[in-house]
Write a structure and sequence with these properties.
With 564 residues, the chain is of the alpha/beta class.
């Protein structure tokens, strides 16, 4: 910790001072302090790993300062938005810190989105710059002329697409030309925007959830405590960093000086290799990712060299997820939340004292619940239509509502939607659940007609509106079809116009050209759409039929597998 100046411990000198010496006893909460601390305490410790690259905390911090200084030199001012479009790599991680250190606001993108969706979010957020991976250059070039506020692009190479036309400045040159000088933390108000994380557009167009410095700081500490992170921990990035700032593990891993192990694609063979090579202790992911890893490990008769603590969320996990995890040294714990609450808001906290001796079936039943509030003081309950808490009987359903430190500040530039979501002083999740006698929450259904596929939420309304533009389609209903691998896949029930002829394959191909892959229907059925007297699609009828068909299919598989 040599050559540290007194100014290194001071926040922005423009921060308000008062006669009660508030500048002495009160600093705004911000996750940027985590980087400052790890840089000082662990300067030569390995901080970030990505493929054949690795950086110490000192090297990582210096790259962050270079990026922040480069952005400021480019004209980025306090409160400006800068977008990030990249898979999990060191540049993505650096961008979250560099943008914030420049006083700006990051806008992380789901890189699976189509060009028109990227265009909407860039314009809606008012982003003035884009830091992106080369593989997305073509999509950005195609919409560049429609972008209203973007003034510059900074491009980093893609390992799997090294060639092709470039769109922006070279990221490494951008850093090289900038000063490595350390910056003071530019935060005056802990409730200032840190990041705008867009939803998947489950009720129409995506909404920008405003995450603050305070919220990210507190949620990151919650991840440290619940995940048991410390300086010897090694976190594997199986979760996309764009998901609510990586459920705030972007900041949590840095807070304790642990190690970020970046992974740009969920490939089971790479995961197993990194588990041993980098001494991985923690990971997060959707049930589909956990199932993919487990399948590879079982096929190759492998298991992790040490117990890895895993957080599973994004969609309801299955009993098999937990059974596989225990066999492979993967200790899974379910989380529940939304983009509006920085990712996780509850955890199925394991009570060893009460449940340590239960059998496997009961252990799985207990773990399949969404649980209790995070340790960092969040509030969550289930209420009826009159905002009364439902009985703790495990049967009476209501809506999950939330308050507390890691609820978003609101939807960016959408006060009406914010007011609607914050009605009666609580954030309304739109999810239906019950409360068990021990106070643990358990989701029983979705209130809105969402399809949750591989952890991604798909708006049925959005897919339906696009399909209705097809010249052969007269009517359409989108529902979730149960699927062993993905939890659900998107299914389209289509009524064709009189005389129209089109195949399911042609419909799927047409959709794939107009929407993200995870939103594209996997199966298509032709027939009439059941509607109510008022014209609403009877999706409950369609979903019930799909569940029954799935149950029959599973039963047939079981019967065929029995000895004759």
């Amino acid at each position: 910790m040599e050559n540290i100046q007194l100014s290194d411990f001071i926040f922005n000198e423009k921060a308000a001072k008062s006669e009660d010496h508030r500048d002495v006893w009160l600093n705004p909460l911000t996750p940027l302090v985590f980087l400052k601390r790890s840089e000082r305490v662990f300067p030569n410790k390995k901080a970030v790993v990505y493929r054949d690259k690795s950086f110490t905390w000192k090297q990582f911090a210096t790259r962050v300062y270079r990026l922040a200084n480069a952005l400021k030199r480019k004209g980025v001012k306090k409160g400006d938005r800068v977008a990030i479009i990249s898979r999990n790599n060191n540049v993505n991680l650096e961008s979250f810190y560099g943008i914030a250190m420049a006083g700006a606001v990051s806008v992380p993108f789901n890189y699976r989105l189509q060009a028109n969706e990227i265009e909407y979010i860039l314009n809606h957020s008012g982003s003035i710059g884009v830091i992106f991976e080369h593989t997305y250059a073509e999509a950005l070039a195609g919409i560049k002329h429609n972008l209203k506020t973007v003034k510059f692009f900074v491009e980093t190479p893609s390992f799997d697409k090294p060639d092709g036309d470039t769109l922006g400045l070279s990221y490494e040159q951008f850093l090289k030309d900038a000063s490595p000088e350390s910056l003071q933390i530019p935060v005056e108000d802990e409730n200032d925007m840190l990041s705008i994380c867009y939803t998947s557009g489950t009720t129409g167009m995506p909404k920008g959830c405003v995450h603050t410095h305070r919220g990210a700081y507190i949620n990151a500490l919650g991840e440290c405590i619940e995940g048991g992170l410390n300086a010897e921990s090694s976190y594997l990035w199986t979760l996309p960093m764009f998901h609510s700032q990586g459920w705030c593990f972007i900041w949590a891993v840095t807070a304790v000086g642990a190690k970020h192990v970046c992974l740009d694609a969920v490939r089971a063979d790479q995961i197993y290799e990194l588990m041993a090579k980098e001494n991985v202790t923690n990971m997060c992911g959707a049930p589909t990712a956990c199932a993919m890893i487990a399948e590879y490990m079982k096929e190759n008769n492998l298991k992790f060299p040490r117990t890895v603590k895993g957080f599973i969320a994004g969609a309801p996990p299955t009993a098999q997820n937990f059974r596989d995890g225990w066999k492979l040294n993967l200790d899974l714990h379910q989380l529940y939340g939304l983009t509006e609450v920085y990712g996780p808001h509850t955890i199925c906290e394991w009570n060893e004292d009460a449940w340590g001796k239960v059998d496997e079936t009961e252990k799985i039943r207990l773990r399949l619940r969404q649980g209790v509030p995070y340790v960092t003081g969040t509030m969550v309950t289930v209420v009826d239509e009159n905002m009364q808490v439902v009985p703790h009987d495990g049967q009476t359903a209501g809506e999950i509502v939330m308050r507390g430190n890691n609820v978003m500040r609101g939807y960016f530039q959408e006060p009406d939607k914010t007011a609607e979501s914050f009605a009666n002083g609580w954030f309304h999740s739109g999810d239906s659940a019950v409360i068990d006698p021990d106070g643990y929450i358990r989701i029983v259904d979705r209130i809105k007609d969402l399809v949750v596929t591989g952890g991604e939420k798909v708006s049925s309304v959005e897919v339906e509106s696009i399909l209705l533009t097809h010249p052969a389609v007269q009517d359409v209903a989108i529902i979730g079809k149960p699927d062993e691998k993905w939890g659900e896949v998107v299914k389209a029930i289509i009524k064709l116009k009189p005389g129209a002829i089109v195949t399911a394959e042609e419909i799927i191909k047409w959709c794939r050209e107009r929407m993200a892959g995870f939103k594209t229907p996997r199966t298509v059925e032709f027939g009439d759409i059941p509607r109510t007297a008022t014209g609403k699609i009877q999706k409950a009828v369609l979903k019930k039929r799909e569940r029954e068909l799935y149950a029959h299919e599973q039963q047939d598989k079981l019967i065929k597998g029995l000895p004759q």
